[in-house]
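Q: How would the structure tokens look for this protein?
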Amino acid sequence: MKKLVAGAFGAVLLLTPVATNAVQASPSSTATIRCKNQTLGSGTLVTGNIEVPSGAFCDLNGAHVTGNATVETKGGLALDLAAAIDGDVRIAPRASLRPGVARPSVAT
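A: Here is the predicted structure in token form.
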């Protein structure tokens, strides 16, 4: 399933979530995962919300979050072109959001 997402500055991204790994907070619909200085890679499915604590970063490198994303003060959230967040994105003052960051491919 492809999803159109309006990004910062009016950019529209076509996202294709791929879910092969699952991170599930709990059966509760208000479950929240804290992403503290982590990279969630391609195929990672976060069932619930994601929160980036103050002073930490979270890099969604192809991950799919089914809930909301919240970034606390001085936190940072980076999303590559394949990342998807189904809910709202809330950014606190002095926090950063880097949408649509293209990752260079590495030849193997």
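Confidence is low (pLDDT under 50) at residues 1-20, 24-29.

The CA atoms of residues 41 and 59 lie 8 Å apart.

Upvote if useful.
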